[in-house]
Amino acid sequence: MLNVLNKSIDESRQGEAYAPNTSSQNPVAKKFFIESYGCSMNFSDSEIIASILHTEGFGATKHEEEADLIFLNTCSIREKAELTVRKRLTEFKKLKRKNPSLLVGILGCMAERLKNKLLDEEKLVDLVVGPDAYRTLPNLIEEAEGGTKAVNVLLSRDETYAGISPVRLNSNGVSAFVSITRGCNNMCSFCVVPFTRGRERSRDVHSILDECRDLFENGYREVTLLGQNVDSYYFVDSATNHVTDFALLLKQVAEINPLLRVRFSTSHPKDITDSVLYTMRDYANICKYIHLPVQSGSSRLLQLMNRTYTREWYLSKIKRIKEIMPDCAISSDIIAGFCTEEEQDHLETLDVMKQSEYEFSYMFIYSERPGTLAAKRYEDNVDMDTKKRRLSEIVSMQNNLSYESNKKDVGKVFEVLIEGDSKRSNLQWMGRNSQNKVMIFDKTQDGKLKKGDYVNVVVNEFTQATLFCTIVN
Ligand code: SAH
Ligand code: SF4
Ligand code: F3S
Question: Is the pLDDT of residue 400 over 60?
């Protein structure tokens, strides 16, 4: 969920289809098309899936009309995310009519929850494969080709896909996601993730470091370490009993090369430690940016949400981050209209936002998810109009905070990693500073800079979402 500024939904990358036509060497290879929904973990999983299929001789295509296999890597986090996928499925009906041997597969977080419904009621789906079962995809495809509906939604306690080298999709060749944990052991009462992705497990540190080194050698200059709760990363080497926690992992990734930027997401406020903060401070290439979702500013609601911290505790964590790294940017996730939320609770959320001076936030209306603790225990009793009004107040607050934060950057010099051309013009570069802010600036006449290079820029102008800069020497 990185890289989306001030949007009330995090589904901006939804439906992003993809990249390399790996089938070009073998024109008879079966072609697959994959579309990813939801969070960065799902995008990262699609790269693992592509790798597994690639090894089996399948080639990727960007065009659904020419695919033999269509996969949707789905999200269940809010009802809207599921509705989008179901609508997309109906669009494949036409393609199936044209090409009766076309197979359609549902992967990811909707698989477990909706397997029966999708297979029986909608009859459109031939395969349903959960997030821990991707290694079985080749067999399942064979089954489905033989006419049997193929299902594997088993969750695992130890699958981390270590040893699978992801095929980078939609890549800018500069930044890549690297998965470090899977699943989640927290039981936030509103959240479906522990049910769709199972128990938390940490990936072997050696395989993480190998992947990051490999990325660097292939020209990548930024890795984002991904997990639902990265700060609880904990790996014990079975040969040496050596323990790697998140602070040590960060340090080791940062030491691969000073030119490799390191980011991470997401941090649960209860788990981020001083030792992580000191490691961030001590390495210039660990980006000064923390995604630290608060969810609500009311201690009463935080307790109902089972977040295990209070408003005061959260604010003291923010204070600690700023003490150790005064230039650290902080972003948040916020839910409007959770069960029993009163006006006073909502005002407390606005107040925590203000005190935390978030640079960005991802803001959502509460959406009850079947099977979660909140769905079982509490009534979803805030009406939709109130939810929408509160969300819009939260969004306005964030817009103001982002504007004020960007205003303070005018006249400052930042090091930027160039990611590519700006959206508007190929005469301008787009990059980010350590704080994850988007910076736009004119290219030099001599054409010496290229994407993946670092350059210093000074900020001249700004909007709430972008800093406009010029290169300094
Ligand atoms: N592991 C991350 C977040 C994963 S889900 C964390 O703990 O911060 C991303 C965000 O979706 C959550 O932070 C939350 O703000 C939002 N979210 C999760 N369940 C939701 C629901 N039922 N309704 C609305 N928003 C939800
Ligand atoms: Fe969901 Fe909470 Fe786990 Fe995040 S930490 S994935 S919100 S249960
Ligand atoms: Fe969605 Fe699953 Fe991610 S529910 S937010 S795709 S972990």
Answer: yes
DSSP letter (8 states) at residue 295: B
Q: Is the CB of 202 under 6 A from ligand 1?
A: no
CATH says 6-152 is which class? alpha beta
List, chain by chain if needed, residues with CB within 6 Å of any ligand 3 atom: 38-39, 41-42, 75-77, 108-109, 192-193, 196-197
CB 82 within 8 A of CB 117: no
Tell which atom from ligand 1 comes closest to the C-alpha of 184. Answer: 1
Distance between CA atoms of 265 and 431, rounded to whole angstroms?
19
State pLDDT tens for residues 41-62: 999 999 999 999 999 999 999 9
Handedness of CA 84, 86, 92, 97 (dihedral sign): negative
Give the distance, in angstroms, between the CA of residue 207 and the centroid of all CA atoms in the same chain. Answer: 20
User: From the CA of 364, which ligand is nearest?
Assistant: 1
Distance 175 CA to ligand 3 centre (A): 21
Look at residue 452 and tell me whether its pLDDT is greater than 70. yes
* 413-471 is a CATH 2.60.260.20 domain: no
Give how far Cα 311 sits from Cα of 145, 166, 243, 306, 328, Å. Answer: 54, 39, 32, 13, 20
Task: Give residue limits of the domains in the chain.
Answer: 6-152, 175-408, 413-471
Question: pTM, whole model, 2 decimals?
Answer: 0.94
Which fold does the domain 175-408 belong to in CATH? pyruvate-formate lyase- activating enzyme (3.80.30)
